[in-house]
Write a structure and sequence with these properties.
alpha+beta; 24 helices; three-stranded antiparallel sheet; six-stranded mixed sheet; Butyryl-CoA Dehydrogenase, subunit A, domain 2
Length: 635
């Protein structure tokens, strides 16, 4: 077995068998996006490919066995992620049908709704996930669509009261869905009980809009041509009372509302928390697309030559220091995020396959999923764009796939929540110690809570293990002058120390809101928002480094583990280099030690350059499926 095989095995993680099987099965399906197709043809092709996925078992794997599924949520997320290596339109289409729509039915519904799941798995029932509105995206609690109960007919009346309340950007809504999982404000007996989810039929068997439903097409987008995104409006649309997905809220025949969770905020975020798999899939799929782009750029760098000592001695792109500076840190970050994703999926799988999940662990999972999704999608956008540039003018040709990847992945930064809002969510959870009393992103409620409890709150490490603590304790020296920046314990300590300082100073800024009125409390929060978001970002940096370190410890092949250690060191060093001003400004690194960071980065590049092909092959994207003519044209 080659070194690249061993690296790939380590990187594949617990669901390696799913990745290996997918690489073979998906390669045989000819899933590459066809740029010559018009919008309608592209959508039909993607829908036909969706049907081909049913026999693979991946669509069924995410549903519980008692509902006709495979009971393997880790397999479901990994399988969706593997689709991203081939076609992001197909990945999104699959995620909407089986992850979002199917997930809403299973996780928010009860037995009568679960009977629909076999039809959802087999595509006999095609749906869409109608949450986002034209006027409300991240702020889901403020959605304007209403579902008002009429006890005289035992029906809910679904209404879009304003133009901004139309459901927008909804995958499957423009053409293929016949039912929508609609999130709306539940109103009964004149009282609103917050956002709930309802199954609303939108088309008949001929594909025509049902009475009161108006569907329209979002048309051409920046990418994802195979996904039929559309808009939905509802005007006096009546649905049976049973169409409320009622696991967390029920309305009886007479209109009385009841819920197992009394607090409206806690109820809402418990509902959203059950749908966490979508956010995890978005982050993992974005990372997968970055790996494809870096595989193309890495292989091209090993083929393309230019300039050199003489015209007869042109030099490989991969041998230029500046090219290494652009390429290898992105590869290192992709490795880091894959290990972090593996850890995240494993945690999700444990929680979703236990009968009594721990609420604290669930909150931590939601926070980690939010932060990683933001970090991964921003990384994917940068990695794909830089890969395009590293391939020169050829990278701009559609035949080399990078422009398609760039257009398709762009929306991932706002899928499942705007990234800045998600980092704010991460910080909110850290600042409130995952307190269930604080719902959502209400800034006033958050700062009031932080102000009253920060002195009593002890932040516990959420990703640490004995391994991590042992490395930190064993680091050489304790003073700045003794810092060995190549030592893993030192790197872990620097990341942890930065996070603790940023979090503590953010909390102190918010303490001033303790006795403020709501307007002043909001102003205090708003002025500290950049600080709050920074707390979320540095937290993610730390958990990623810890996940990478833990992943290496599980690698059975010592040669592969040694190489992964060098990659991990590069990730840590470039992360420190990117934030060198903070480490210097807060006296964590002296001027002298800070000056060595760039030298150490360059030394890591020198070490890793001979292993460039191994690292690219370690991503596990078969060369035959890269779909880039640029790799075939070079000698």
């Amino acid at each position: 077995m080659t070194l690249s095989d061993e690296v790939r095995i380590a990187l594949d993680g617990k669901w390696r068998h799913v990745r290996e099987k997918s690489r073979v099965e998906l390669a045989e399906m000819n899933l590459a996006y066809d740029l010559d197709l018009d919008l309608d043809a592209a959508r039909e092709r993607t829908f036909a490919q969706l049907k081909e996925l049913v026999p693979t078992g991946v669509p069924a794997s995410g549903f519980r066995t008692e509902n006709g599924g495979g009971g393997d949520p880790g397999m479901a997320v990994t399988g969706i992620e593997m689709l991203a290596q081939f076609d992001l339109s197909l990945m999104v289409k699959a995620g909407v049908q089986w992850g979002l729509f199917g997930g809403a039915v299973e996780n928010l519904g009860t037995a009568k709704h679960h009977a629909l799941i076999p039809q959802i798995i087999n595509l006999d029932l095609v749906g869409c996930f109608a949450m986002t509105e034209t006027g409300h995206g991240s702020d889901v609690q403020s959605l304007e669509t209403t579902a008002t109960y009429d006890p005289s007919t035992e029906e809910f009346v679904i209404e879009s009261p304003t133009r901004s309340s139309r459901k927008d950007y909804i995958g499957n809504a423009a053409k293929h869905a016949s039912v929508a999982a609609v999130f709306a404000q539940l109103i009964t007996r004149g009282e609103s009980h917050g956002v709930h989810c309802f199954l609303v039929p939108i088309r008949d068997e001929h594909g025509e809009d049902l009475p009161g439903v108006i569907t329209s097409d979002d048309g051409h987008k920046g990418g994802l041509g195979g996904v039929d995104n559309g808009r939905l409006e509802f005007h006096d649309v009546r649905i049976p009372r049973e169409n409320l997905l009622n696991k967390y809220g029920q309305v009886d025949e007479g209109g009385a509302y009841s819920s197992p969770i009394e607090n409206v905020n806690r109820r809402f975020f418990t509902m959203l928390g059950t749908l966490i798999r979508g956010r995890i899939s978005v982050g993992g799929s974005a990372s997968a697309s970055a790996e494809v782009a870096l595989s193309i750029a890495g292989r091209y760098a090993l083929k393309r030559r230019q300039f050199g000592p003489t015209p007869e001695q042109e030099v490989l792109l991969a041998d230029y220091r500046m090219h290494q500076r652009r390429l290898l840190p992105l590869i290192a970050r992709s490795y880091a995020y894959r290990f972090a994703q593996n850890q995240l999926v494993a945690r999700m799988h444990r929680l979703q396959t236990t009968d009594d999940p721990d609420p604290q662990m669930a909150r931590e999972l939601e926070s980690r999923a939010a932060g990683l999704k933001a970090a991964q999608t921003w990384h994917a956008s940068r990695a794909i764009q830089d890969s395009r540039e590293m391939c020169g003018g050829a990278g701009y040709l559609a035949e080399n796939r990078l422009t398609t990847l760039r257009g398709d992945v762009d929306v991932f930064t706002t899928f499942e929540g705007d990234n800045h809002v998600l980092f704010q969510l991460v910080a909110k959870e850290l600042l409130t110690a995952y307190a269930s009393e604080v719902g959502g992103l209400d800034p006033v409620g958050m700062v009031k809570f932080v102000a009253g409890t920060v002195t009593d709150t002890v932040r516990e490490r959420t990703a640490a293990s004995q391994l991590i603590q042992r490395l930190i304790d064993a680091r050489p020296g304790r003073s700045d002058d003794d810092h060995d920046l190549l030592d893993r314990g030192t790197q872990l300590s620097l990341f942890e120390d930065r996070e603790e300082h940023v979090l503590e100073t953010a909390a102190r800024r918010l303490q001033r809101a303790a006795k403020a009125d709501p307007d002043e409390a909001f102003r205090i929060f708003n002025n500290a928002q950049d600080h709050v978001i920074r707390a979320g970002k540095v937290h993610v940096d730390r958990i990623v480094l810890e996940a990478f370190t833990a992943g290496i410890a599980r690698c059975d092949d010592e040669e592969a583990a040694d190489l992964l250690r060098e990659v991990c060191t590069l990730y840590a060093l470039v992360t420190i280099e990117d934030d060198l001003a903070w480490f210097m400004g807060h006296n964590r690194l002296s001027d002298q030690r800070a000056k060595t960071v760039t030298t150490l980065v360059n030394e890591q590049l020198e070490k890793l350059r001979p292993h460039l092909l191994t690292l690219v092959e370690g991503f596990g994207v078969p060369e035959s499926t890269l779909g880039a003519e640029i790799l075939l044209d070079q000698d």
